[in-house]
Amino acid sequence: MHVHLRQDDMLRNVTPFTARQFVGAVCMPNTLPPVDSVERYDRYCAEIRAAAEPYAFEPYVPLFFHEGLTREVLAPARERLFGVKLYPAGVTTNSEAGVSELAKIEPVLDVMQDLDLPLLVHGETNGYSHDREREFVGVYDHIAKTFPKLRITMEHISTVEAAAFLDRHENVFATVTLHHLLYTMDDLLGGMWNPFMFCKPIIKSPKDRAALRDLVLSGHPKVMFGSDSAPHTEVAKRTEGAAGCFTAPVLLPCLAQFFEEHDALDRLQAFVSDHAQRIYRVTPPKREVLLEEATWTVPPRYGSIVPVNAGQVLRWRVAG
Ligand code: DOR
Ligand code: ZN
Fold first, then answer.
1. Which domain holds residue 189?
2. In a domain, 313, yes or no
3. I need a surface site. Which of 98, 200, 237, 300 has the fewest CB within 10 A?
4. Residue 3 beta carbon below 6 angstroms from any ligand 1 atom
């Protein structure tokens, strides 16, 4: 329920990894330019569907939040829209066109609440890296209180504080990524700097990871899997410091291994699929994906992109 598929060649190269394992996904709008109008939305959905062929794949693309998303823009397209994604300006990749004054977002939120359009949020401030998400919890609290009927997704939560906040409001939900579930900051910089583990929000402490694991393994009904798989070329990762972990090729195998190790395989299906369908009220076509216990080695790179877990042996794979 959270993936970056990009544009053009990158879109065509990475989409099959997601479409092979998932029948639909929330595909993020931080393209260049962003998917910020109904026209661009229609075009991007069509491009994703074409890139996913031969898989039937349902793209759920939230519009990139801006103050111009008025009732006149949103209401006529409501039936085919999925939601709106809010990026504070400058907090992550391609977020320069995001929101710089949070005080000004309320008229759009009011319309969204009225139209029952979910709000998806990259919840970080511009503060000290490690504290950005914790500092943003107050913003979530304000929005959830002011718009009690607006469904709000805290994307890729990474902290004890966000995990604890989840149950404070009925209208607040969360996604958790594979990398925040499996790793800590030591995997990024505890040894040699590993650029392929660098992402926003930054992967945090063992304590934060434990809170996420508890939430996910408990089968919490407000928690959905959102990979935040975010491809960048190896060159961009190594030389420009691009933020984003490319996890798409390894998602279900790694999740199966994680849930199995915690004796919770029976909760995997709900985490990757059922909860999101209920929360977002979407009904993608049904597809069964078979996971089998069989070892394989993650390739060192897919074209110009280095995946997370490159070179590692995994114990599960997607059959067929
Ligand atoms: O690490 C990230 N990469 N976090 C985001 O929020 C965006 C993403 C990207 O688009 O590369
Ligand atoms: Zn993302």
1. 8-288
2. no
3. 300
4. no
